[in-house]
UniProtKB/TrEMBL annotation:
This is histidine kinase. InterPro entries: CheY-like_superfamily (IPR011006), HATPase_C_sf (IPR036890), HATPase_dom (IPR003594), His_kinase_dom (IPR005467), HisK_dim/P_dom (IPR003661), HisK_dim/P_sf (IPR036097), Sig_transdc_His_kin-like_C (IPR004358), Sig_transdc_resp-reg_receiver (IPR001789). It comes from the Bacteria. The chain crosses the membrane at residues 20-40. Its EC number is 2.7.13.3. One of its GO terms (molecular function) is phosphorelay sensor kinase activity. Residues 337-450, 478-593 form the Response regulatory domain. Pfam families: HATPase_c (PF02518), HisKA (PF00512), Response_reg (PF00072). Residues 93-317 form the Histidine kinase domain. The modification 4-aspartylphosphate is found at D387, D527. It comes from Mucilaginibacter arboris. SMART domains: HATPase_c, HisKA, REC. Keywords: Membrane, Phosphoprotein, Transmembrane, Transmembrane helix, Two-component regulatory system.
Length: 600
């Protein structure tokens, strides 16, 4: 009875417990929490997946946009490269097509000028030659301006590292402007410090491009005086690279302080904006190229006194040695007394420095009057070098006075390119050298006159060199002419015939290969542009196939920057441009003939 009551009370008490305190409630709560967590997780997962999909979509869009952009840039570069290539081909074609017939015109006129002509005929031929030189100057100026613009595009390319001859590089730059300077009172000269190796490893084309731009602008603002290129060694780096400093100095109008400050700021800046004038354009191109060669540019100027641009570049010394050891040859003349008469302070002292290095004894005079005074004081000399254009007494007048006192003294006339006034008095001179002076020409003429005792006068010397078989007897060579143009074949053959040679002619590269396979030739005058096989390919084949290698000289109307390097890279030994001058052709044949004789 009592127990039943207690149970009833307990059950009633249980019925009175709230639901949220029962285990059923906790179980239900846990289920709800799990369901809510699952729903929350699914919502977050869907959001993440949506974001991921959105990111992937945007990434895909950007990838496609980037690919399209790269493709557009690549197409633009290809179009630009194609345009530049077509531009280069056009310039090359214009140069080649003009120079090829001009080679015949000027060459045949020069040959005609060497024959017996009366005064009126000489005047006519001289006028043709003078007009031809003027036309060439115009062509060069037009093409150079085009190249200047072209160089702005090309200046971002990587540098080449090839071995080259620094002296030849500078002389070729000055050669381009020789005719233009010859028509004015401007001297072109250069000097390379003894510490600078002549053979360098670097980008010869870029260096020439820089020098051409600076020299061209120097001539533009100079009416008389000089344009001078100097090279010196500044520092030898630990990695064996050389820091060289070049200067291009003129005696022109100079720059005002305002213009000088503007240019100096331009040189220091990284931008190239505001370059409108010709000088600014050239400076911008040069600044880019110099910086590409780890160097810098600076300018110095005084108004009405001239301007000097200086730039440094890094290069390495070359491993090759020059073909001809001029110093050893000139030692044969040690102690010979040389009279130098030149009113140009720079040219005179450069000649004195050169003769001192050759162990000769130079005496320097800056006028004809002073030269005669030195002759009176010193007595006999072994050789005299006199400038054609000097105040009060020119070279012809001085030569006449010297011959009256010392009729046997050999005289070398230093002549402006294109000036032919001396020809009426050719018997006075043993030799004539055109300015700007080239070391190998100067040393060759001095060596010939002093070592071989050549004192017969220029008239006989010209007969010996140009119009007589004596030249071929002195320098016997088997010569092959590779030329497709009939008129140029005739011209070069005539010149070589007058030198005493009987050359063979081939019209294309295939004929050249067939000819050299049957007969050994000492020298080949190789045109570059020929049908069937050009001169470059023919040269490469010769260098690979022949045991006995001939001297190959490019004789081409391709005269743009890089053409010479392309010829040398193909295996050619030297380069002469069309129109070919008689003196130039004779000198280059003599140069390689002498080298061949020395190598025997």
């Amino acid at each position: 009875m009592n127990t039943g009551c207690l149970l009833i009370i307990s059950a009633e008490n249980l019925l009175l417990v709230p639901f949220w305190l029962t285990w059923w409630f906790y179980l239900l709560l846990m289920v709800i929490v799990v369901i809510a967590g699952y729903i929350y997780h699914r919502i977050n997962m869907n959001a993440v997946l949506h974001q991921k999909a959105d990111v992937e979509r945007k990434l895909l869009e950007r990838t496609e946009l980037l690919s399209y952009s790269k493709l557009s840039v690549q197409r633009a570069r290809e179009d630009e490269a194609r345009a530049n290539h077509n531009k280069s081909l056009l310039i090359s074609k214009i140069s080649h097509d003009i120079r090829t017939p001009m080679n015949t015109i000027m060459g045949m006129t020069a040959l005609l000028n060497e024959t017996a002509l009366n005064y009126e005929q000489q005047e006519y031929t001289s006028t043709i030659l003078y007009s031809g030189e003027n036309l060439l100057s115009i062509i060069n100026e037009i093409l150079m301006n085009d190249i200047l613009e072209y160089s702005k595009i090309e200046s971002g390319r990587e540098l080449e590292a090839k071995e080259f001859d620094l002296r030849t590089n500078i002389e070729e730059v000055l050669d381009i402007f020789a005719s233009k300077a010859g028509q004015t009172d401007i001297e072109l000269a250069y000097d390379i410090s003894e510490k600078v190796p002549v053979q360098l490893m670097g980008d010869a084309l870029r260096l020439r491009q820089i020098l051409m731009n600076f020299v061209e602008n120097a001539l533009r603002f100079t009416t008389r005086g000089e344009v001078f290129i100097g090279v010196k060694l500044v520092e030898q780096k630990e990695d064996y690279r050389l820091k060289l400093e070049f200067e291009v100095r003129d005696t022109g109008v100079g720059l005002s302080p305002e213009k000088l400050a503007s240019l100096a700021n331009n040189l220091k800046s990284e931008t190239t904006e505001g370059t409108n004038s010709g000088l600014d354009i050239a400076l911008t191109v040069c600044k880019k190229l110099v910086r590409l060669m780890d160097g810098s540019v600076k300018v110095e100027s005084q108004e009405k006194k001239g301007t000097t641009f200086k730039f440094t570049i890094l290069m390495s010394a070359g491993k090759q040695t020059p073909h001809k050891n001029t110093q050893a040859e000139m030692l044969k003349l040690t102690g010979k007394k040389i009279l130098i008469a030149d009113d140009s302070f720079t040219v005179g002292h450069l000649l004195k420095k050169q003769f001192d290095s050759w162990k000769l004894v130079p005496f320097l005079a800056d006028s004809g009057k002073q030269a005669l005074a030195l002759l009176a004081q010193q007595g006999s000399f072994d050789l005299a070098l006199i400038d054609m254009q000097m105040p009060e007494m020119n070279g012809i007048e001085l030569a006449k006075s010297i011959k009256q006192l010392f009729p046997e003294l050999p005289i070398i006339l230093l002549n402006k390119t294109g000036n032919e006034d001396y020809k009426k008095h050719s018997a006075l001179f043993s030799s004539v050298i055109d300015k700007p002076l080239k070391q190998h020409v100067l040393s060759g003429q001095v060596l010939n006159l002093l070592w071989q005792k050549g004192k017969d006068g220029l008239a006989n010397d010209q007969q010996k060199q140009k119009l007589s078989v004596e030249f071929a007897k002195q320098y016997p060579l088997n010569i092959l002419i590779a030329e497709d143009d009939k008129m140029n074949q005739k011209l070069v053959s005539k010149v070589l015939n007058k030198l005493g040679y009987e050359p063979h002619v081939s019209e294309n590269g295939k004929d050249v290969l067939e000819e050299v396979s049957q007969k050994n030739y000492d020298l080949i005058l190789m045109d570059v542009q020929m049908p069937e096989m050009d001169g470059l390919e023919a040269t490469r084949m010769i260098r690979v196939c022949l045991t006995e290698q001939p001297i190959i000289i490019a004789m081409t109307a391709n005269t743009l920057q890089g053409d010479r390097e392309e010829c040398l890279k193909a295996g050619m030994d030297d380069y002469i441009s069309k129109p070919v001058r008689l003196d130039g052709l004779v000198n280059i044949i003599e140069k390689w003939a002498l080298q061949g004789q020395q190598g025997q």
